[in-house]
Recover the amino acids of this structure.
């Protein structure tokens, strides 16, 4: 994957309506799932009990939380695009979030995204990304969402 670099938010306008580079694959480990469960207090057996999941889960393994894939969007976008002048980035919200497929432990994920829209915002820009978190070897993605992010120069 080739990361895109921009000097400032004005230069970013050339990317509006275009696809970002596809992110690198990364593996979702049981430790990541456990850490997320501890942070969110969502410790359902399907996420953290490997023995029970092997016996009763449709995937025969634990699965990542759906919200885990959403929580990674800002970092996944930051891994493919960088604006040097930005001093602060803030999550503004999400639209149309769906979790079409579960993510079994040790699955590999990557981000496919498009910078759908750029709008003026106090001291910066509000960016809307169309995001798809792909699971290696699966037809259905882990997550699809419109992710809204504010960048301040």
């Amino acid at each position: 994957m080739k990361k895109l670099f921009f000097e400032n938010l004005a230069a970013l306008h050339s990317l509006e309506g275009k696809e970002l580079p596809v992110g690198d694959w990364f593996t979702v480990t049981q430790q990541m799932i456990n850490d997320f469960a501890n942070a969110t207090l969502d410790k359902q057996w399907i996420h953290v009990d490997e023995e029970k999941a092997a016996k009763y889960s449709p995937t025969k393994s634990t699965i990542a939380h759906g919200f885990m894939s959403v929580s990674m969007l800002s970092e996944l976008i930051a891994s493919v695009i960088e604006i040097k002048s930005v001093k602060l980035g803030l999550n503004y919200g999400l639209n149309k979030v769906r979790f079409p497929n579960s993510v079994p432990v040790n699955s590999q994920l990557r981000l496919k995204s498009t910078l759908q829209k750029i709008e003026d915002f106090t001291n910066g820009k509000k960016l809307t990304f169309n995001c798809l978190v792909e699971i290696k070897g699966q037809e259905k993605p882990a997550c699809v969402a419109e992710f809204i992010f504010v960048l301040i120069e």
The mean pLDDT is 95.
